[in-house]
Fold each of these.
Amino acid sequence: MKRFTIAIALSAFLSSPAIADEDMSARVMKYRSAIKSLVMSLKSELKTALRAGGAVNALSVCHTKAESISSKVSKQVGFSVKRTSLKPRNSNNAPDDWERAVLEQFEQRKAQGENPKRLEFVEVVENNGQRQVRYMKAIPTRGVCLRCHGSEIAPKVMNKLQELYPNDKATGFKVGDLRGAFSITETLSK
Ligand code: HEC
């Protein structure tokens, strides 16, 4: 299967025999905009929750709403949009084999000096006899994320995290680290 690495050269995927070049570019635009919708929904939910009751309250909101927000956006756009990470907080967000390989590729590309904000990858894969376009975009850690994903988390927040996510792996991040990635799967009709 041919691999395309958008961040290195947009033209890299233009030689795809599986999908015409202009079609693939249009898809990638569509995926980026679906991710923007998800980011906006998550952000507004997080802001409201933080304002209403600080980080401890916001945790409960994320806990109950993050997955349903992803499902809602996925329904709206007609393909699956979710978040994943090599160090997930919610084990439902653990990567599958394809996602893990891409997350590792992002870590390598970042180590080689690529801008984490621009890390993307798209590939056409065969899954149980179905053709799928799979796309990922990296999520860098920002300052505001450290309250719940950093290495100096307030004890109250830490207690709540341990209660909600006994297998939490998503702490100890620094600004600029890759917190994870958005992951899109679109099944192509034959
Ligand atoms: C108020 C606390 C809080 C803040 C602030 C916060 N997060 Fe999270 N984050 C969570 C919780 C809780 C989850 C688990 C959600 C779930 O159950 O699906 C999570 C999950 C995630 C996931 C999904 C993968 C996983 O680990 O399960 C990503 C990616 C993520 N956060 C990135 C960020 C980024 C980037 C920022 C900053 C822009 C941020 N978070 C800020 C609490 C927070």
Amino acid sequence: MLTPDELFQYNPDLTPELMEKVDEVIHSYKKKPGSLIPVLEECQRLVGYLPVELQEYISQGLNIPGSTVYGVVTFYSFFSMVPKGRHQVKVCIGTACYVRGGKAILDRVSQHYGLEVGGITKDRRFSLDAVRCLGACGLAPAVVIDGDTYGGVRPDKIVDIMERYQ
Ligand code: FES
């Protein structure tokens, strides 16, 4: 099993301080049945995402095969194997939003922040996802930033909206 120092060398996001907290989470759930998902949720909340090194560490800590951990992480969309920004921007390109300018919003965000869909800005301020429907078609085109939903978004206004999120 990798030590916290070795993990830090492989992945600088996994600081020894964070790994101490990860250890506490693993320890507190270790003997409980059905512990994998709550442990993954807590660890993602701590680290921000679930890199493979961390998955391996959790697998060993809970004595669950790595393939099972990987399978769960990739099955549920709320788990992420890549870092997320401090603010998560979801631009809808479902049909209702697409025809009202969703794609133009996406292009504006990509161009202004140099962001690819699924990517993260260098300062980790924003991560960007394109989604198929936010369940707010009546507000099309819709964008969600963290938990805030914006409707009727104009492409030339999206940067102003995002600038409220530091
Ligand atoms: S298609 Fe965009 S919210 Fe439904």
